Hints:
The protein has 275 residues and is of the alpha+beta class.
Amino acid sequence: MLQRAFRAMGTDVELLLDAEPGERSDGALDRAEAEFERLEQMMSRFREDSELSRLNRDGRISAASPDLVRVLKLALEAREVTGGRFDPTVHDAVVAAGYDRTFEAVASDAAAISGVPPARCGGDVRIKGLTIELEPGTRIDLGGIGKGYAVDRVAELLAVAGPCLVNAGGDLAVRGGSWPVGVTDEITLELTRGGMATSGRDRRRWLRNGEERHHLIDPSTGRPALGAPIRVTVVADSAAAAEVAAKAAFLGGDVDLPHVLVTADGRTVLAGGLA
């Protein structure tokens, strides 16, 4: 089993490839790592020179990368399907909550600016060909679905060299083989295809005026979700689809896919056909 580990998209990435060492497998691992960098350079809201940052600054971009158009279309379709629970226009709400820089640089506790109204979500996004235009005051955050898309894309690249697993901070995709994946201390799921993703408020959290905040925004309020479970892990046909479903389930949406939910009081619930 070959392994490659590195940092990308603000998280730890692990590549596992069931292949013999050699030029072919090394090349596949190199291309996979380079693909993470390429997609991060395109979709990161923390890189001032990224394509997404330029879109958010200018409100419009022509001749956008096909991948950016593809991910944004997936995100807008997800907003429709989930009744707005998943929304790529939560950028300003995430920033207002305190997640205004890479997570490593976010202060664990700081004073919040008082009197700030909830950030607006649900902004209009128009896509025509490779031109993307945002409604004034609308900005995009592709964090979760962008990471899921990258994981899926990299898994496809690696699969030409053998069965593989790609893990980017809990967003997983597998191609070929059988892969045991720990979800909780007690629960391990076996993945043979597709992807997995987790939405939770137990990792990326911080304090503002002593009040706990997290990065999962409820678009209906423009603020970090209240009364939500601790985390939800979903298995789907792709990591990107699992990201969408996990966020929707975290906010109380009905999800028919296999998932594991850890409630606010610590209970573990298996649903969607898991037993």
